[in-house]
Amino acid sequence: MTAKADEKQRKRAPSKRSLQTKARILDAAEQVFAARGFEGASIRDIAALAEVPLGLVSHHGGSKEELFHQAVARRAKELSRLRIEKLEARKALGPVSMRDVLDCFVRPYVSLAQTPGTGWMAYGRLVAHVSADPRWRTITAECFDPIAQRFIDEVAALFPGVDKALVAAGHVYTVAATLAYLNSVWRIEDLAAGAPEANAAGIDRLVDFCVAGTEAMIARGSA
After folding, report:
1. Residues 48 and 144 grouped into a single domain
2. Tell me, what's the pLDDT at 1?
3. CA 29, CA 67: separation in Å to the nearest integer?
4. Which of 60, 153, 159, 185 is most buried by its number of CB atoms within 10 A?
């Protein structure tokens, strides 16, 4: 084989089978990391769940740290796109309120997570692990900071002269409330004697909560 042919062989696009295997591995990694965190997860368990030989996990995912990074990153771009599309569509209708902005951030993910069989619920648990651990700063900076800054800027623009740290805090609390809501709907329903919470009205209440909290911080900071 000539050098040129050899280079062409190396650059050949992955086969459909290879892409399907990698997707299965990332699905399994997402589930295992979400359930057990980084330390509790093992490559062996990921391979078993994906039903692939152990060596294929390393082949497609690299080291455990690289696999964790890939598991976090692969859905982040899609979620950011959905949030931006919703925000731009709302802005095209006219002036927006803070509630409009936060709804465009919160609702796309909650709706995805509440759709059975999509894997987005597990992804939320994975994001919770990342958000709670400063050692994953580089992952959050790459995967989540751009969209976070966009929405922080949108809220800050509604309050000229606001201390941006207050808006940033409101954003972090909004993310935390969203993840808590998704993982604790059952608890709300138990305390409310079984009244269903996982519905559009429940998302409305979550957004109301996030808006009220952020507004209260901004008002107190501006006093």
Report:
1. no
2. 43
3. 7
4. 60
